[in-house]
Amino acid sequence: MNRFKRSMQWLLIAVLLPASALVYAQGTVKIGVVAEFSGPFADYGGQILAGMKTYLKQHGDVYGGKKIELIVKDTTGAAPEVAKRLAQELVTQDNVDILAGFGLTPNAMAVAPVATEAKKPMVIMNAATSVITTRSPYIVRLSHTLPQQTQPIAQWAAKNGIKRVFTLVSDYGPGTDAEAAFIKAFKAAGGEIVDSVRTPLQNPDFAPFLQRIKDAKPDAVFVFVPPGSQTIAFIKGYEERGLKQAGIKIIATGDLTDDGVLEAMGDGTLGLITSFHYSAAHDSPENKAFIKSYAETNGTKLRPNFMAVGGYDGMQAIAEALKKTQGSTDPDKLMAAFKGMKLMSPRGPIMIDPDTRDIVETVYIRRVEKVNGQLYNIEFDKFPDQKDPGKQ
Ligand code: PHB
Fold first, then answer.
1. Cα torsion at 183, 188, 190, 193 (round to 10°)?
2. What's the predicted TM-score (pTM) here?
3. Is 175 a pocket residue for ligand 1 (Cβ < 6 Å)?
């Protein structure tokens, strides 16, 4: 190389270096969002992403000097192999710093080993089977667990005159967690379990199960099925098969009366009592601001539900962690920042348990009522500071 060429090369480096250093100093944090955006669970990803965007619109998208960039991938449903492949691509091709999203348990479970191997923090925004957080030291959960929700409603039911219960759950992680937690807490409170059935995760037909429940004449049926077409079908079948007329009550976690589906389920839900961490009717300034901002950000009249709040708080936790690490995406520094973190959520105060990386939150008891002509879950009792009993 002649001297002229070499000096031009140095000149080029001298000119480009400060510019690239500047870009690096600002930098971006890439978040790979893996969730369900099509198929029967399409609302899960939709709500999670809308919640994340709401946080960024309300509070800005630069934290610790880094700009947040979202890269969104669709698992197309409960599809663990697809979720795993998408997460691997996000890590190896897109160079994401953080994995986030996960409406459904099977998708979260499949991605856990990817998070461990690649050392990427994985922020769970819904998937609610207790064991998920134990599957990688890089997982943190900002949503809920089924045992956390179920224990309070079991105790409430036993105190409120319900003695004999039939359980019906979806036959996968959150369902079997809910079943186990209900049976344990309800029996401990003096209740009797009449019988238990599990329904398939994909396309269940509730008719034969509802008939069995009717014939068993329990005081109530405890139910967990994933919200959407299944909860609508369950309520319809419960009414059509005369369980309501037979005096069989429903008790459930708030997945059944999901704010995103409640209006579509109709007046058959009036009076239903459930336990849950979030209601769109939650009376707080943070929730009012969230509801307003969600509509503005996403240009929708759709009601935000608990998955939207999971997305919002997951984004909030990432933002706060980046502030603490001053923009460093070192996975161990980010995980240290998550542990013990306290946040104010639209649902109320929340904390990340430093030992389990799982959420500690208030579980409310609510009743479906009509407010200004619309169905809402109205909170009337609460169990503060609930940890995941699945881990104790
Ligand atoms: C889950 O798959 O973990 C799940 C899905 C929907 C819910 C709760 C949990 O409402």
1. 10
2. 0.93
3. no
